[in-house]
Structure formats: C-alpha cells, structure tokens
Specification:
The longest helix is centred in the C-terminal third of the chain and has 23 residues. α6 packs across α7. The strands form 2 sheets. A 6-stranded parallel beta sheet has the order 1-4-3-2-5-6, with helices on both faces. Strands 7-8-9 form a 3-stranded antiparallel beta sheet, with no helix packed on it. It has 283 residues and is an alpha/beta fold. It contains 8 helices and 9 strands. It binds adenosine monophosphate. The site of adenosine monophosphate has 17 residues, from α2 and β5.
Length: 283
C-alpha cells in the first residue's frame, strides 16, 4: 500500500480540468456522476476569466460534487457591428484558472457543435424583460437576450445541472435566464452571486481589457455614481419611495441617456415630512 501523503498535485480536486469539445463527450463524462446522484453545478462563461468568474466557480466548487464550466463565445448574442471578432480570448489561461478553482470539466464546444448547419430554433423570453435596458432596440436589442436564452437553454439540456451560477453584474441576463428556466421547466436552481469589483470599484469584466489608461480612469465613475446614490440614502437612514430615471419631457422610464435630458427623481419620507427632489442630467 502506498502511504505517501497526498500532495496538492495528486489530490483529485487539483487534477487538471478535463476539456470536452462535444455534447457526446460531455454526456458520457457526466453519466457516472449523474447515476451516483451527485450534484452537478454549471458556470456558463465566455472565457477570459477574471475574479468575477472565479467567485462563481468557487461557489460551485463549495456547493456541488461536480463542477462544469462552459467556455463559449456565443455568436448569437452579439449583434452586427458588436465586438464578436475582437472579444478577448485566452483558452490556455482559462483552463489553468479553471483547474485552480477546482473545475472538473470545461465544456468548450466549437460554434458548429452548438449551432450546426440548419439550426433554426430560438428561445424568446417576453419583451417586458428583454426589450428594455440592454435589450432596448436602440441598444443591443432583444436579439441579444434571445441569443443568451437560447444558448443557456442548450447548455442546461447538455449538462443537466442541479445548480447554475450567474453574476449580479449582468442583472438583466440573470433575470431573463431565471424566467426562461422557470417557464420551460428546467429542473435547475439558479444562483445569482454579487458583483466582484476592482479595488477602486469598477465592476470586473472581460471587456475591461478594451480600456486604455485614460478610459480606465474614467470608467470608475459608473460604480461611483451608483454607489453614491445608494450610500447617501443609506447613511441618512432614508428608504426612498421611488428613485427613478425618466425622460425629462415625456416622463417615460428611460434605460439610458439616449440624447434627451433625463430626470432622476426621488421621493422619501424623512421624519414627519414627505419630501421630493430631482436632478436633470443633460447628455
Ligand atoms: P461572461 O463571461 O462575461 O459571459 O460572464 C459569465 C458569468 O460571469 C455571468 O454569469 C456573469 O454575470 C458573471 N460575471 C461577469 N462579471 C462578473 C463580476 N464582475 N462579478 C460577478 N460575476 C460576474
């Protein structure tokens, strides 16, 4: 009997994550864990991993017997003129980080494996969730979420996870996927984990790789602005009745500054008074 103490390298948990390229390979790799009733966790990603992804992988590692990470830059969720071609990729590094995070299987299919010739089906979640904010026709459009919902439905079918992990940074995406899973009876629990940020507050994103020095410095204003609103209200112990961004003239809800002035308005009870205030943001 070999009594050599196990080193990190020989522990199964630190074995290199197995890379699977096809649904058939995936199915056969998961056959035995499924038969044994092991809990399977899925973390869908487009790769170029950062701490945000790693937080999802670690949660899956802590909660599940088997961890599957998908690595697929999904063309269906990129619109014409978006950054599909220059989306950052580094599979070798991703596999190393996935292994370090304890991932068992990396499912990294080709585009043809996911969308073979003749592919002609899509999963579409109601426009109330998919045609607003990022899905607004003036922004990425509902086609973005059709691409997301379709690929995640396919991943749920291919992997059959008990739990799937998503990040709060893509809040609308997480909401759309939850709705899709509920409506289509996928027996999966979706976990949404907090946004992981750089030290200065910038939300981590693979696309931060596009930022040059000047843009990187300015980008921190997004999180500063959001946090200032929350912090100021919280520190005064004020819970707003509403805090809304609306078109300054039509008073319709707006998702972004689309060339028109936006009114950000708040109302709250403070002591015995009901107070209102607003600021006008001119593009
Ligand atoms: P992506 O590779 O950008 O498609 O992201 C894959 C998953 O990681 C999605 O569920 C994202 O919401 C999540 N994610 C991306 N960035 C972050 C972050 N900064 N914090 C937490 N989760 C994130």
């Amino acid at each position: 009997m070999d009594l050599t103490p196990l080193t990190g390298d020989t522990l199964p948990r630190n074995a290199a994550a197995s890379v699977l390229r096809t649904k058939a390979e995936l199915r056969s790799a998961l056959e035995s864990p499924r038969r044994l009733g092991q809990a399977i966790g899925l973390v869908p990603t487009m790769g170029y991993l950062h701490e945000g992804h790693l937080s999802l992988l670690r949660a899956a590692r802590a909660e599940c017997d088997v961890v599957v990470m998908s690595l697929f830059v999904n063309p269906a969720q990129f619109g014409p003129g978006e950054d599909l071609d220059r989306y950052p990729r580094d599979e070798e590094r991703d596999l190393r980080l996935a292994t370090e995070a304890g991932v068992d299987f990396v499912y990294a299919p080709s585009v043809a494996e996911v969308y073979p010739d003749g592919f002609s089906t899509a999963v579409e979640v109601d426009g109330r969730l998919t045609e607003v904010l990022d899905g607004d026709p003036a922004r990425r459009g509902a086609g973005h979420f059709r691409g997301v919902a379709t690929v995640v439905a396919k991943l749920f079918n291919a992997v059959g996870p008990d739990v799937a992990y998503f990040g709060q940074k893509d809040a609308q995406q997480a909401t759309v996927i939850r709705q899709m899973a509920r409506d289509l009876d996928f027996p999966v629990r979706t976990e949404v984990l907090p946004t992981v940020r750089e030290a200065d507050g910038l939300a981590m994103s693979s696309r931060n790789a596009y930022l040059d020095e000047d843009a990187r410095e300015r980008a921190v204003a997004l999180s500063r602005a959001l946090h200032a609103a929350r912090r100021e209200l919280e520190s005064a112990g004020i819970e707003p009745e509403y805090l809304e961004a609306r078109d300054a003239e039509r008073l319709e809800p707006v998702a972004e500054l689309n060339g028109r002035p936006v009114l950000v308005a708040v109302a709250a009870r403070v002591g015995g008074a009901r107070l209102i205030d607003n600021v006008l943001i001119r593009p």
